[in-house]
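Morning F.,

Quick status update on the modeling queue. The single chain you submitted on Monday has been processed. Sequence for confirmation:
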Amino acid sequence: MANAINISRCLHRISIKSAPTLTNVLTRGMAGGGSRKFFPLSSTYTDRRFIKRAMFYAALTGVPASIVITYINVFYGPAQLAEIPEGYIPKHWEYYQHPITRFIAKYIKPSPQQEYEKCAHVMEYEFGKAMARKQEKEIKRQMRQRGDSDYLYVPVKNSLQSLRTVED
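C-alpha cells below.
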C-alpha cells in the first residue's frame, strides 16, 4: 500500500512539471516549482553498522579460536586408550578423548564430586528449613490448644508498684 502511494506521488511530481493546472498551483509549495514534502524513509545506516561490527567481532574471536583449534587437532589429536598402571586412580578429566574437552573439564567445569557436594548441601539446607517449618507448625498448634499467646506476660501487683520501679 505504501509503495503504491509513493509511486503515485512520483507520477504526480512528473505531471506537475509538464502542465500547470489549478490543482498544481494549489498543491505547490513555496519556491521551487513542486510540492515540498518530506517523505521519511528508513535508513540502512544502523543495519550496515550492526553487520560490520558483528563481522568484526566474529573475526576478532573466530580467527584466533579457529587457529588454536586447528593447531590442537593437527599436533595433539584425540587421546589414545592405554593400560592403567596398577594402583593409579584416573582424574575425572582423563576420561574425555579430545584435548579441548579435557581442558574444559579440568579448569572450567566443576568436578562431579563438587557437583554432588553442592547438591547435597542444598538438599540438607532445604531439609533444615522444612524441619523448622514443621516445628513452628507444631508449636502454633500447641499454643492454640493450650490458649497461650505470642507475647511475654509479666504480672504486676498494682499500679503504684510499677510507678516506683520506673522512678528508681
